[in-house]
Specification:
Strand order of the largest sheet: 1-2-3-4
Radius of gyration: 15 Å
Strand content: 25-35%
CATH architecture of one domain: 3-Layer(aba) Sandwich
Number of strands: 7
Largest sheet: 4 strands, antiparallel
CATH class of one domain: Alpha Beta
Order of helices and strands: EHHHEEEHEHEE
Length: 154
């Protein structure tokens, strides 16, 4: 991951992180033919409000914000990497950072059933499918879990 820096997000990162999130989840929305996915509806104010109860990390590639992830007790959310920066290990690095920051003995997350790349990433990272939840005719959420006992905490 040459040129990639991982660090805690700052307030001035919010606009760029929102742009990355929307770009990344637009790709997901096209898989499901659903332009109304919750991450696409978030605003800068929504992110700022969520940060009151989350830890937040960003990835910069050669100084450009290209990814972010939010961590709440037990739950890892909104892992997103700019489409043009994917397949470089940035998502895996953010996931590992989120796990070390998680104040829990387990991590929970979910993704859509058609998101093959996400499912492969999470399986490689040790996540196990717990259940599936049909949201509507097009979307089935795959809920995954990973035991974090023994994971070093940061």
């Amino acid at each position: 991951m040459y040129g990639v820096e991982l660090r805690q997000g700052r307030p001035d990162d919010v606009p760029a992180a929102l742009a990355v999130q929307k770009a990344a989840f637009t790709v997901e929305a096209s898989l499901y033919q659903d332009p109304d996915l919750p991450p696409l509806r978030e605003s800068e104010a929504d992110i700022v409000a969520d940060l009151a109860s989350s830890r937040w990390f960003v990835a910069l590639l050669d100084g450009r914000l290209v990814g972010s992830v939010r961590v709440r007790p037990v739950h890892i959310a909104r892992l997103s990497v700019a489409p043009d920066a994917q397949r470089r290990g940035i998502g895996a690095a953010l996931l590992t950072l989120a796990e070390t920051a998680a104040p829990a003995e387990e991590a929970l997350l979910f993704t859509g059933h058609l998101s093959a790349g996400n499912l492969r990433l999470y399986a490689r990272a040790g996540y196990v499918e717990e259940r599936r939840e049909r949201v509507d005719d097009a979307v089935v959420l795959v809920h995954l879990r990973k035991d974090l006992a023994g994971t070093p905490r940061g």
